[in-house]
Structure formats: structure tokens, C-alpha cells
């Protein structure tokens, strides 16, 4: 019996943090940023395995794109060196652009997939790119008191 | 209406770094040797631009017969100025940037890792020492041991190491350089290398220039009347350049060798990939060009520290540094204490007992960091090997 939340607002108002699951880094390909796709047992009853694996694989692809060493990274490096790295005051690096994409993706995944299931993903950059932190929420009280708790918590905000 | 001063995250960061310009600049605590480096470079170059450069230019101008030689003569000081600007820019970039510090684990993550370790180790008999905390990973068919850092409460990623001078785990830790006043790690290694390379070129340039000038002077006997200033400037410049040459050019050569093998100074000193027991460097592409390209032209990694993010005073204030809803709901996590782990939900705000010493050090640092600290007298490193490698023996 999984707890059902319809959106992030409801999650915030009527849920309490029960547990945190940490997805560790996968170092088999070296020092590139990649996370393990092994499904943690704590999430067994909360989310489907395929959805979770899709999220992690997409994140891994984004990081691989950011850290790709190819023509564009050489160009960026040489151009930056010639301008004594002052060019980074004006333009964004490719890595920063991809990080913004990742942040948007995580937000979208949280709204569409994870919050309705009472879960919340933290952007890995906030944890030093070491782990993907997934917070597991439990319903605080019965459904009858959810409206009351939402008003009290909204006044507290 | 009293405006509350915002507290930025750099003020609460554990570790022994000093921060300037409201978190934009990040350096080690002892900056004395860095000031010396800056003084030597700027001082010697200023002396060079006063003498002998103008005199030699005037001399060359007077002997120019063709117009195209004017361009050549002009290029001499322009090249010197550009090189000097590049050297100082690289030095400042190396010294002021985040070398790739890994933030410490928050209490929940630390507990999670502890539980994993206990599960892996099983039952330890009373009186027996628990086994060392090591994780084995396979990288490119090589077993690499990841050690646990007791200070940061994380398993260090491959190639990361804990700098005891700065009290931080640094990713792709190379060494702690007192001349630069900072650790050299993943994020600032290329700037450090470009600094040593360009400084070598500048030193050779000034040295050669002075030697040529002395030879020409002896030959021509022109500056007889300018006797008092001449010898002292030249002698000083030649002296500084001579000693700098041996150390900096040697260091540049050493780092070129390391880059070609995709190794760090730390790994070289420890002999991690020396080849005994058929251990090879799993990070090397076995190709000189590829290794160089990865280290020098690789992507510019972002800092994960978020030094200038605003600390939450209370749970209701959103962080202006990240306006997305993603961070808003993270920052307004319900503060109910019904969590299974007895750890606070909002990081860095309430100090659990175990983290008090590190936070105490952080607040001490935050009161003194805006002011310029009087650096203690630095230990004078060996001129030939200015790199200082310190690693706490965890």
C-alpha cells in the first residue's frame, strides 16, 4: 500500500520525512561522474524499478555529455587559454549549461514521477556530486486532517 | 527597518581555508609564501621594465635601417608585457580558485555509510580492532582501493586525497603548494601547469635579455655614464632568474612528465602506479597526446562548494541563489523531528554534537576571514622541490 500524493504542495504540507536513500557513484569507468543503477531495496514498495533506472540512466547520460572530451571541449579550452580565462566572465561553460539542464530534469521528474509517490530527489551537485539523495516521505496523519495541517503549516510559512 | 546581514555558505564551511571578497576567493590559511611569490614576480618584472628594457630598445631603435625591423623591435616589449600578464593571471587563478574540494558528508549520509560499513564488516569481537574501512572498485581491469576519510566521513573517490593543511578532501589531489598558497587539484591543475610553464618562459626571457645586454654593453661601451644604477639591476635580475630557472623549469619538466602519464604528484610520490605487482595506471589512455588533452583541454569542472549561496536563517526563507522550485521545496523541508535517523534535516543550521568541533572551527574562521590574517612565518621549502605534500595518515 503505497502512500499517494498528488503534487509537491501536498507532499510538503502533509508528509514527514521517514528515511533517506543514497545512490552511490559507479567508478567502474574511471573518475567520470556516473551513478549506480542498482535498485535500492528501500524503494521496493514505492516506485517501479524501470522508472528509477530510467532516471538514473538519463542523469548518467547528462553527466557523460558534460564531461565529454572532444572537439567542443578542446575549442573551449584553447579559446579560454588565449583570453587568459577572462572569457568565462561572459559566457557559460558547457558543464554549467548541462548542470542547468540536469537541474530542470530533476525538478520535472520530482513533479511528475517522484512526488506523487512520496519521494524527492536531491540534485547531486548539492551533495558534492557524490550521491543522489532520495528522501522518502510518509503520510503524517489521516486524510481527514490533511487540510487542517496544510492551513497550519501554510501560516507557519 | 533593520536589514539582516545575509550569511553565506562559505562562512560555515568546515576546513582551514580563508575566504576573501565575500566567498569569491578561496585560499589556504598560510599565505606568506604566496605574497613572496607575487613580490618576486612583480618586483623582478618591474625592474626589468625600468632597466634594461628601455635602454636596449632605444639602442636598437637607433640602429634600425629598415622599416620592417621596427615591428620586430616593438614586439619585444609587447611580448614581455603579455607574458607577464599571463603569468600573474595564471598565478591568481591557481591561488584563488577552489581546487576541487569535496564537501563533507551531512549527518544522514554519514550514518548511511556507517551502517553499510557495519553490515559489511559483520560482528567484531570485543577487544579486537575493527578492520580498516576500505572499498574495492574495479576501474579498467585494475582493483583500486577507496579509503574512508574519518574527517569528512566519506569514502574518498579515486584519486582524491585529504589535505591536512587545508583539512579538506580534494578531488584529483596533486599537492599542496605553499608558493601558490592553495592546494592543486582537479579544478586548478591546468592553471598551475600554465603558470609554471609561462613563468619558465618569462624567467628565461629576462635572463637571456640581461645576458645579451651585458655582452652588448661590454662590446659597445655606450652606457659609461649610467654607472650607478646599471650593475645592481642587472645583477639582481640575473640572480633571481638563475635560482628561479633551476626550480621552476625543473618543476615544469616534472609536471609535463606527469601529464604525459596522466598521474598526479601524490600518486608519483606514493608509487601507486610504479609497476610493481603488475599494477598499472588505470586512468592513463596510454597515449601521450590523449593524456595531455584530457588534463589540459578537458572540461572545466564546476565547484561543488557553492560558497556564495545564502545560508537559511530559518526554514521559511528561500535561497536567492537558486530560484528554481526544486531548491525551494528542498529548503522548506518539514522540520518535524520524526526522522528515523536523529539528524537535523536542514544542513549546516543546527549542529549535532558530533559535528560541533568542525563547526566551531568554521565560526572562528568566519570571524577572522574578512580581515587580512597576519600569516605565520612560513617554512622555507627546498628551492628545487617547492611542492609540499601533506596527507593525514588516516
From TrEMBL, chain A:
GO biological process, one term: protein targeting to membrane
UniProt superkingdom: Eukaryota
InterPro entries: Golgin_A_7/ERF4 (IPR019383), Ras_palmitoyltransferase (IPR051371)
Predominant location category: Golgi
Membrane topology: Lipid-anchor
Keywords assigned: Membrane
Compartment list: Golgi apparatus membrane
Keyword S-adenosyl-L-methionine among UniProt keywords: no
Boundaries of every Golgin subfamily A member 7/ERF4 domain copy: 21-133
A GO cellular component entry from the record: palmitoyltransferase complex
Pfam families per UniProt: Erf4
Family: Belongs to the ERF4 family.
Protein name: Golgin A7 family, member Ba isoform X2
Taxonomic lineage of the native organism: Eukaryota, Metazoa, Chordata, Craniata, Vertebrata
Gene that encodes the chain: golga7ba
TrEMBL record, chain B:
InterPro entries in UniProt: Palmitoyltrfase_DHHC, PFA4/ZDH16/20/ERF2-like
Compositional bias ranges of the Polar residues kind: 317-342
One cellular component term from this protein's GO annotations in UniProt: endoplasmic reticulum membrane
GO biological process: protein targeting to membrane
Bilayer-crossing regions: 33-51, 71-92, 191-216, 236-260
Cell compartments where the protein resides: Endoplasmic reticulum membrane; Golgi apparatus membrane
Membrane topology label: Multi-pass membrane protein
Family of the protein in this entry: Belongs to the DHHC palmitoyltransferase family. ERF2/ZDHHC9 subfamily.
Record-given protein name: Palmitoyltransferase
